[in-house]
Amino acid sequence: MGDIQLTNEQKAAVETSDKNILVSAAAGSGKTAVLAKRIARNVIEGKTSIEKLVVVTFTKAAASEMRAKIRKELEKELSKNPNNNSLYTQITLLQDANICTIDSFCQGILKTHFEEAGIDPDFRVAEDAEITLIQSEAFDEVMEDFHREGDPDFYKFLECYSGKKDDSDIEKLVNALYRSADANPWPDEWLDEMMSGYDDSGNIYDNKIIQYYINFLKDTCSGYALKLEPLIDEILKDENSISLCEKFAVPEKEMFKNVAESKDPKALVDSFMGLNFITFNTSNKCDDDLKKQLKAFREIYKKIKSENENFVRFLSDEKGLKQEINDTKPYIEILIKLTKAYGKKLDEAKREKNIVTFSDMEHLALNVLVNREDGKSVPTKAALDLRNYYSEIMVDEYQDTNMLQE
Questions:
Q1: Residue 372's beta-bridge partner residues?
Q2: pLDDT at 49 > cutoff 90
Q3: Which residue among 64, 131, 234, 340 has its CA within the 20 to 30 Å range from the CA of 258?
Q4: pLDDT > 80? residue 100
Q5: 105-116: string of b/e by CB count within 10 Å (b at 16+)?
Q6: 262 phi and psi, to 5 degrees?
Q7: CA 281, 284, 285, 288 torsion: positive or negative?
Q8: How far apart are CA 355 and CA 352, in angstroms?
Q9: Counting Cβ atoms within 10 Å, is residue 80 exposed (0-12), middle (13-18) or buried (19+)?
Q10: What does the angle CA 124 – CA 125 – CA 127 come to, to the nearest 5 degrees?
Q11: In this predicted model, what pLDDT tens digit does every residue of 121-143 receive, in sequence order?
Q12: What was the pLDDT predicted at 2?
């Protein structure tokens, strides 16, 4: 399978089958090459045919590179077995194989299932400048509609978030929220879920927004404790520097660990506010590099503590938290209403011009493959047909996929 000697982990990534696999490794470590070898190996061994694979890459250039790597592996095998007609067939099929970006794959689904997608088969991908103009016009129309409705909360929202001269600040807010929603499979459901975070009934500490910040603090503190462990191991190897552990690293690790393990918000607040960094003074015998590393760690987390102290105090004020959620709720409702209306206007304008964005293609393809029933996704006949046809889906740069693509 090529000249490169695979590590045991790479070999496992190439050879493991009949289960889901996630390969995690540093940049430049050969993940793409391993993926190409996996594909070539399965084809050479007759486990699959190249047209039965979906190989998703992040860019068109990456798709071309992947295709070339696979071709190289197949041709290398063919040189050993020149009478292997099956390999000739696979190399021929390679050119039209689904080794492409996710946008190209979705575009293929739409060209085949345009009726289910409810789209004209002659649709085209819009130019950036064209979309920018449509977005601007859609926003202006939505704002006119809201002005006509005359909702008092809308005008309060304008007072708080509009700039002195125009509504450009609100336009930025709406566009930012729209992009976040659009990166999810069901944008309106995602926006409704956002709104549910402003429910002030029940235990305020069960509120999703408050939980987010509590978990952020816990993760931050847990991260510091974990990051200290390798440094502690290094310090303990140097007899002259052990005091760095005894006086600073180990006690501070335990302090942050206690915050991360807090069972309730009150304990979290008390533990976080109780974080106390001892004045850094050390023996001259301690290794200078180890001292510098530990000092750098401490400075980062002193800053984190300082920046979060006021918010952590606020977390202890249950009444204040409820009031803040209650005061913010009307503005969030208006922002979400604006965003939903804006998205609807955009869809109407694009449909009228028979144009789509790359994100539109993904949403439309998803709608071809999935029926949404009572908040649950049910595969369509088209999805089941594709599932039966393809044997494996492989994704390069998987970490860059959003929830819609997922």
A1: 377
A2: yes
A3: 234
A4: yes
A5: bbbebbeebbeb
A6: -60, 135
A7: positive
A8: 8
A9: exposed
A10: 120
A11: 999 999 999 999 999 999 999 99
A12: 46
What is the Cα–Cα distance from 302 to 297, expressed in whole angstroms? Answer: 9
Task: Give the C-alpha separation, 129 to 102, whole Å.
Answer: 23
Q: Which two structure tokens, joined as six digits, stand for 405? A: 């693509």
Q: What is the token pair recorded at 80?
A: 């050993």
- Beta strand 370-373 with 376-379: parallel, antiparallel or unpaired? antiparallel
Average pLDDT over residues 290-302: 89
Burial annotation 6-26 (CB, 10 A radius, 16+ → b, else e)? beeebeebbeeeeeeeebeee
Looking at residue 4, its pLDDT comes to 67
| The model scores a pTM over 0.85 | no
Question: What distance in Å separates the CA atoms of residue 81 and residue 96, rounded to the nearest whole number?
Answer: 24
Identify which of 128, 135, 132, 59 has the alpha carbon closest to the alpha carbon of residue 99: 59
Three-state SS sequence of 148-199: HHCCHHHHHHHHHHCCCCCCHHHHHHHHHHHHHHHCCCCHHHHHHHHHHCCC
